[in-house]
Specification:
This protein is 20% helix and 30% strand. By secondary structure, the protein is α/β, with parallel strands linked by helices. An 8-stranded mixed β-sheet has the order 7-6-5-8-1-9-12-11, with helices on both faces. Strands 2-10 form a two-stranded antiparallel ribbon. Strands 3-4 form a two-stranded antiparallel ribbon. The longest helix has 13 residues, at 47-59.
């Protein structure tokens, strides 16, 4: 069944990166295990993390991200991350000059258009929304079904917030998944309707 999931690695105090966009040790868990998560040869996690993350990655069809994330990653070299089929980029700017328009990236103006585009592309598979400002906007608009957090054992003190600039209360159900990996605690909450 198709669902919309907000997801990211996050510090214990709720940040997905420092003010300068450096994630610091938030992704240590992705390289601290002995089980390959993908074919890159870079990502190696604990067996517990693999058993939780790999099936989730396999169900994602589309990732929605903001233009800032797109720019920080250099557009993932025109290859969607984690094996997803498409990336929908929320932006008020056109694709970068020289961008391969045949790459599976879709540039849209706003979260409503992003969701319509993502759902059309995803069919009955999962739509993932990157945490941060875009994810927070989608949560506030009632478009997110589930919140997943990979909580790293670090306190950043300040930085880019997991929920972006959300400034109102949103209730989640009790966590229905709690998995301890190496250097990470995986949590999943359904959004209360």
């Amino acid at each position: 069944m198709r669902k919309v999931v907000m997801n990211a690695s996050v510090s214990v105090d709720g940040f997905i990166a420092a003010e300068d966009d450096d994630p610091g040790p938030l992704f240590e868990w992705l390289v601290s295990g002995d089980v390959p998560l993908d074919d890159s040869g870079v990502l190696n996690v604990s067996q517990a993390s693999y058993d939780h993350i790999r099936p989730y990655w396999d169900e994602i069809s589309v990732t929605i991200a903001g233009r800032h994330s797109f720019d920080l990653t250099d557009g993932w070299d025109a290859t969607p991350p984690s094996g997803v089929d498409h990336v929908v980029v929320v932006t008020h700017r056109p694709p970068p000059e020289g961008w391969d328009l045949n790459a599976p990236f879709h540039f849209v103006d706003g979260i409503a258009e992003a969701m319509v585009t993502a759902r059309a592309l995803a069919g009955d598979r999962t739509v993932e929304v990157a945490a941060g400002d875009v994810g927070g906007q989608m949560l506030a608009a009632g478009l997110v079904d589930e919140v997943r957090m990979d909580v790293a054992p670090v306190v950043l003190g300040s930085g880019k917030r997991y929920f972006g600039s959300v400034d109102s209360q949103h209730l989640l159900e009790d966590p229905d998944v709690i998995i301890q990996g190496d250097r990470v605690l995986h949590l999943r909450y359904r959004v209360r309707r």
